[in-house]
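Narrative summary of target 7.
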Amino acid sequence: MTAEDTLADSGLHFDDLNKLRVLEPENAQQTGELKEECQEFVGKIAEFQKMVGSFISITNDLAQEVEKEKMKAIGSRNMLRSIAKQRESEQKQLQALIAEKKNQLERLRVQQQALEKQEVEQNEFIDQFSTT
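Modeled conformation, tokenized:
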């Protein structure tokens, strides 16, 4: 048995640089590769988290803008309803005023006809006394 075999049996190995190692060279290499892959994975996860954070931030900003526009739209709709109700109320007031003025006009016509009739009667009465 050689010295290397004796060391290998006790769990000690030499690497490519002839350094004494506890792990077999193959296991050490696989461990190093795994470490590099893990570091790459962690880097990718960090990059993914940044992208997700950015996406969430943009989504939140967009949600706030949408909410703001929604409130503006609701305010505009309420204002339009208010204006429509106000116009309807004004229209009813104007219709009531028109009806009142028509009644007043009719009353004044009747009064005018009565006064014209009275004038005719008085003129006839005057004519009767003046011709006699």
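The chain has one domain: 3-131.
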